[in-house]
Amino acid sequence: MSDQRTDTLLAFLLGAAVGAGVALLLAPASGAETRKKIGDGARKVGDELGHRLHDVKDEVKAKGGDFQKAIAAGKDAYERARLAGEPAPTSTAM
Questions:
Q1: Structural domain for 59, as ranges
Q2: If 0-12 CB within 10 Å is exposed, 13-18 middle and 19+ buried, where does residue 3 land?
Q3: Tally: H helices and E strands in the chain
Q4: Rounded mean pLDDT, 60-69
């Protein structure tokens, strides 16, 4: 998933949580009702973030093999260059 999509989703969830909190605080309700509503809203946001975190973990696991291959290839290139007496290869990928 792209960083922009992740940032957008997190911004949306944060905005929704803040908006819901403000709406509850400004609504005419008793303190107990308001605390219950805030707690319910916090649980919903926590559940949603938990699901999102689970999705991200799954994505990282799926791409883990690619990362390990890239790291191994970099180590191999470094070792070949070192044994050949050449300067280590560099990358501007990041």
A1: 3-83
A2: exposed
A3: 2, 0
A4: 79
- Give a yes or no: residue 89 inside a domain: no
Place of tokens 């290139």: 77
pTM: 0.39
Is the per-residue pLDDT at 52 higher than 80?
yes
Q: How many domains does the chain have?
A: 1
How far CA 80 is from CA of 27, 67, 76, in Å, comes to 68, 20, 6
Q: What is the DSSP string of 2-16?
A: -HHHHHHHHHHHHHH
- Close Cβ partners of 58 (under 8 Å, ≥ 6 residues apart): none
Q: What is the mean pLDDT of the chain?
A: 80
